[in-house]
Amino acid sequence: KFYTLKYLGVDPKKLFLSVVKVKGSTTLHMILLYEYNKKFPPLVLDNLSWKVLPLDRRKDLKPLFAFNESTSLGFKNNKLGDYMRVDWGRENKWKDLLKKIKNKK
Question: Taking the alpha carbons of 5, 10, 12, 18 in that order, is the dihedral positive or negative?
Fold first, then answer.
């Protein structure tokens, strides 16, 4: 979804992948967020619901952090917040994926 929307002309700085906890689940889930306006919660695109809803209407999701090609952010009141350093462990798999994509062009 991220790369399809980017290919269609959506500004990639407004698209964020987000790691969330899902109510009733013990595992983490990844969703795509579209921040169309900083004053409002971003829209959620994911495979748990066919509806595109603002994050504050998705009561089943608790966002942990969000990231895109240029930054990583925390959350405040269901809106994207301040810069957040993400501990990716030994390998930053996001940067590795971006390198692979750039090398295939």
Answer: negative
